[in-house]
Specification:
By secondary structure, the protein is of the alpha/beta class. The protein is 51% helix and 11% strand. It has 14 helices and 9 strands. The strands form 2 sheets. It has a 6-stranded parallel sheet with strand order 1-9-6-4-2-3, with helices on both faces. The longest helix has 21 residues. The mean pLDDT is 96. The protein binds nicotinamide-adenine-dinucleotide. The site of nicotinamide-adenine-dinucleotide (NAD) has 28 residues, from helix 5, strand 7, helix 6 and helix 10.
Length: 392
């Protein structure tokens, strides 16, 4: 069986990597740039820093700062309108996964045209997008290196997953110093998202020899650095470790796949607007326990990398320790059960959980899981995650 591996052609990492913005844009031949970002990046002054650098280099800069968390088709259309109106020839994305994903979709809309929804699924983009340079500020989704964009279809309340190599950024500037400002809650949520990428990439039915080492290194770095970054937001070693983990996790899952956690998490985000990292975190222990039997050796490897088990433990014991360890990590990071997440109300949850299960199955991600669930099993897992998870 063959496997394809795609990542951006240029990835610059390390403290100050984002200062490469202007030279990298010059290499791309960009003259008129659309900066795609969000309101926080503007209010924090970070957007202005990059705007000034580009303006001082003689570039025309237009800004679209209307991306909302979990970006929508309306956000993308507005960005595309600005791109055309300002006659731009390149895009810079600044922010977390939301601005990066919105920018990816704007980049392909600019060359392929509407309708956006036809790109949902796998390998549906006909033409390469315009040059896209991304600067992540969360660690994170790994979107800076993935061929994936997730955009909410506001008509049907579905998070559309698009995967195509034309969604890859051209350049990623991965600068951990931009993550010092993340508050502990955001650090926890996006950090468990990163961990989920590493775990799902490693246990996926589509895991490859190229993605395995990236996934395991992602998990190793999260184990070492997440809780320190959460406690000490300005700890450079911890922030650097988490930033690298996010980028490695992105490379891994984008070329392997995500699985059941992400499949079930997207409908929670689409319906209840629970932040993406949090909706993964609340599902991870229950889904891991459900999936253990399909890839016991691989889950045991993860438990050992996370120092939850040793080589003296049987794979079965290591798997059980992994489930308990993931639940304990959520507790230490103050991750609430699904039922205690803001906006998730029991009555509505009971009405929509069948649709959420159907949408999860339709996304294709559960089919990559070590154990492929039925829709009824997905509903049972939603119910389990709703309450505080009990490891035994
Ligand atoms: N394309 C991919 O490969 C991929 C992978 C995983 C998730 N996603 C998508 O990414 C989105 C989530 O992205 P995210 O978790 O990075 O969050 P986000 O981009 O939605 O940002 C969340 C909040 O954090 C703020 N923020 C960002 N950087 C900050 C910083 N340095 N300091 C303080 N606040 C900061 C933002 O302004 C926003 O208010 C979801 O839509 C999810 O579906 C995409």
């Amino acid at each position: 069986m063959t496997a394809q591996f795609n990542i951006p052609s240029t990835i610059v990492t390390g403290a100050g990597a984002s200062a490469n913005l202007v030279p990298q844009l010059a290499r791309l031949g960009a003259r008129r740039v659309l900066l795609v970002t969000d309101a926080f990046m503007v209010s924090s002054g970070l957007a202005a820093r990059f705007q000034s650098a580009m303006l001082n280099a003689g570039l025309h800069v237009a800004t679209f700062d209307g991306v909302q968390p979990d970006p929508t088709d309306a956000n993308v259309r507005e960005g595309a309108r600005r791109f055309a109106e300002e006659k731009c020839d390149a895009i810079v994305a600044l922010g977390g996964g939301s601005p990066m994903d919105a920018a990816k979709a704007v980049a392909i809309l600019a060359t392929n045209g509407e309708p956006l929804s036809r790109f949902q699924g796998y390998h549906r983009v006909e033409r390469a997008g315009v040059p896209l340079l991304v600067i992540p500020t969360t660690a994170g989704t790994g979107s800076e290196v993935t061929k994936v964009a997730v955009i909410t279809d506001t008509k049907c309340d579905v998070k559309m997953m698009m995967l195509d190599r034309y969604l890859l950024p051209t350049v990623a500037l991965v600068d951990y110093e931009l993550t010092f400002s993340m508050p502990p809650t955001l650090t926890a949520h996006v950090g468990v998202d990163t961990l989920t990428h590493g775990i799902e990439a490693y246990v996926s039915r589509k895991a490859t020899a190229l993605t395995d080492p990236l996934a395991l290194q992602c998990i190793r770095l999260v184990t070492e650095h997440l809780e320190t970054a959460w406690r000490e937001p300005h700890n450079p070693a911890a922030r650097e470790g988490m930033m690298l983990a996010a980028t490695l996790g992105g490379m891994a899952f984008s070329n392997s796949s995500v699985a059941l956690v992400h499949g079930m998490s997207r409908p929670i985000g689409a319906v209840f607007h629970v932040p993406h990292g949090l909706s993964n975190a609340v599902l991870l222990p229950a889904v891991t326990r459900f999936s253990l039997s399909g890839a016991l050796k691989r889950y045991a490897d993860i438990a050992r990398v996370m120092r939850l088990a040793t080589s003296a433990d049987s794979d079965a014991a290591a798997g059980e320790r992994l489930v308990a360890g993931l639940a304990a990590l959520n507790t230490r990071l103050d991750v609430p059960p699904l039922g205690a997440c803001p906006g998730v109300e029991r009555g509505r949850f009971d009405v929509v959980k069948d649709k959420m299960a159907a949408d999860a199955m339709a996304s294709g991600s559960p089919q990559n899981n070590p154990v492929v669930p039925t829709p009824q099993q997905i509903v049972a897992l939603y119910d389990e995650a709703y309450e505080r998870f009990l490891a035994d």
